[in-house]
Amino acid sequence: QVQLQEAGPGLVRSSGTLSLTCAVSGGSIDSNNWWTWVRQPPGKGLEWIGEIYHSGTTNYNPSLKSRVTISIDKSKNQFSLRLTSVTAADTAVFYCARTGYMSGRYFDYWGQGTLVTVSS
Amino acid sequence: SYELIQAPSVSVSPGQTASITCSGDKLGDKYACWYQQKPGQSPVLVIFQDSKRPSGIPERFSGSNSGNTATLTISGTQAMDEADYYCQAWDSSTVVFGGGTKLTVL
Questions:
Q1: Where are the alpha helices (DSSP H) in B1-106?
Q2: Phi, psi (rounded to 5 degrees) for A5
């Protein structure tokens, strides 16, 4: 059973950089899956941030692309999110997730989520 | 950019059939999937590739996708099905979520 666990600061200063990691257990991050970050502002819907493949290939949400970097560390079986120049609008629960094996993008395993608050 | 449109809310009586729709340009040409999210919990995949159910998802959940509309159908809706439901598709290397539909069972 694959498990994902987000980790990182729960509070980030406005204009600073948000950094989170997602540790993967029960499976290899080197498998034929994409690894994804999704966020959800309090009381709002889901927003896709971006994804990474074990080769290092990434895809990002065009609306966030200029501020987002997703990286992968195969030695630690984890991947990371970096979001720069944050504002209060970036306050959200951040989820990491695994994309399933079959065609199309769908997320079959999710982390529990971590709330990140951007403060001034 | 690609958009998926969902009604904000749907109500259904226990035991009845709930239909939640998701609209997008030529959505039927893409794969659609659906997530259930209960308060304070992570989303759970209930339908992928338009109509497939992951292991452990009850048979009362089904899906279809044609034209511009994908539909999640819950037959014999139970109180435990009350949740937010999100559709999702993939277009031009970008994942898109619908705005979500709150299903109320009353």
A1: none
A2: -140, 120
Asked if A110 and B43 touch (Cβ cutoff 8 Å), the reply is yes
Q: Give the span between the Cα atoms of B6 and B33, in whole angstroms.
A: 13
For residue A25, give both structure tokens.
């257990």
Q: pLDDT of A77-118, one tens digit each? A: 999 999 999 999 999 999 999 998 778 899 999 999 999 999
pLDDT tens string B8-29: 999 999 999 999 999 999 999 9
pLDDT at A9: 96
DSSP letters spanning A22-45 = EEEESS-TTSS-EEEEEEE-TTS-
Chain A CB contacts of B49 under 8 Å are: 102-104, 106
Residues of B in contact with A104 (CB under 8 A): 30-31, 33, 48-49, 89-90
Residue B45 is nearest to which of A36, A106, A113, comparing CB atoms?
A106
Interface test with B, best of A46, A95, A114 (most B CBs within 10 A): A46
List chain B residues with CB under 8 Å of A95: 42-43
Residue-level pLDDT at A120: 84
Strand pairing class (A11-13; A34-40): unpaired
